Amino acid sequence: MSSPAVVWDPALLAYNLGDDHPFNPVRLDLTIRLATALGVLEDVPFLVPEPAVAEQLYRAHTAEYVEAVRQAPMAGWDVGHGLGTPDNPVFTDMHEASALVVGSTLLGARRIAEGRALRAVNIAGGLHHAMGDRASGFCVYNDCVVAISWLLDHGFDRIAYVDTDVHHGDGVQAAFYSDPRVLTISLHQHPFTLFPGTGYAGEIGEGAAGGRAVNLPLPPATKDAGWFRAFHAVVPSVLAAFRPQILVTQCGVDSHVEDPLADLSLTVDGHRAIYRTLREFADTFAEGRWLAVGGGGYQLIRVVPRSWTHLLATVLDRDVDPTTPLPRAWTEQVLAMAPKAEVPARMTDGQDGAEPSFSRWGDGMDDPVDIAVRDTRRAVFPLHGLDPDDPRD
Known about the structure:
The two termini are 34 Å apart. α1 (26-37) crosses α9 (304-315), α4 packs parallel to α5 (143-152) and α7 (224-242) packs parallel to α11. By secondary structure, the protein is an alpha/beta fold. It has helices at residues 26-37, 54-57, 63-75, 94-113, 143-152, 170-175, 224-242, 268-285, 304-315, 328-337, 368-380, and strands spanning 5-7, 46-47, 119-122, 159-163, 182-189, 213-218, 246-250, 290-293. An eight-stranded parallel beta sheet has the order 2-1-3-8-7-4-5-6, with helices on both faces.
C-alpha cells in the first residue's frame, strides 16, 4: 500500500470565476504554499490530474448541459443552465478548468479503488452544488457525484458521503436520493437562513433509499462545542449501521466564524478536529479508505490556508501542532499580495491549540442544537434500526 495520495497541479488555479468573486483560487495557492513551508508536503509526489472526459462528466450531468458549458464562453452571458449569473459567471476555458477539477477527484478515487492508497485528498474539489443540468453555488461540474458514481462501478456498493461545509450538499444528495448504495450526510447552517434552502431533517431519501439521506441543519452562530455535540449524536451511529466501504468527505471551511458568506462560528481548531475525527471514522468504519475534497471557504487568508493545511496534514498523518507559528516566508508572501491583510500568527485560533470540548447529546441540555439533533435522529434513526431517543445509539 502506497502513501496517501495528494492530487494537485497549478493548472487547477484556472477555475477562476473572477478576481472579485468569493471563490478565488488564491485560497488554493496559499494553502499549498503554507503546507509546503511547514514541511507537510515534503517528499510528497503530487498526483497530476487530467481533465475528465465527456463520458465521465455524463455520470453527473446531461449531455446538453456539458455542451452548454463548452459553448458558454463563446455564446456570451445568456446561456441558461445557471451559467452567466453572479454566482456562476462565464469565464474563459470554463469547461476545461471545471473538467480538470472533476478529473482530480476522480484520480484520487481511482487510486483508492486500485488499492494503491487508502487515502486521497483534492483540496480543489468539493463542488457539491452543481446539478445534473445546471450550475449552482459557484459549482459548474459536480466532482463528488462523478467520483461516487465511478466508485459504484468499480467495486464499491456502500459509499458514505459526509459533508461538513456550511452549505447543504444538495447536488450530491439529489444525485443519489433514491440510491440505497450511497449514504449522504450533511451538517450545515439551517436552510431557512442560508443558500441553497434545502437540507431539512425531513429530507431522508426515497423508496429503497429511505434513511440514506441524513441532514442536520444547525442554527446560526453554532460554535465548535455545539457542532461536535450534534455531529457525534448522529454521524457515528449512522455510519456504524450503514457499514460503508469507503468514506468520501467534503471539507468546506465556510463554517468558520470569520467567513463572510455564512453564520456558523467554528474555529480553525474545530476544523482540525473535524479532520482528525473523519480520519478516525474512516479507520473505524471503512477499513481506512478515505477520499477527502475541499469545498467552500471565503476568508481567503486567515482561514482557508490554515484549515486546509491541517486537512492535508491529517490525511498524510503529519499532523501539525496547532501552536506552530506561521512561517515568516509565507507571511511575507501574503503581505506582498495584500499589504493590509491581517495575517494570523499561528496555526490555531486559540491560546494552546486544544481541540474543542463538548458535552454529549442526552446529557439533559435543551437548546436549538439539541432540537436539531432530535429532529434528525427521529427522522432517520428508525430506518437504520436505531432508537432515536436512546443516547447510547
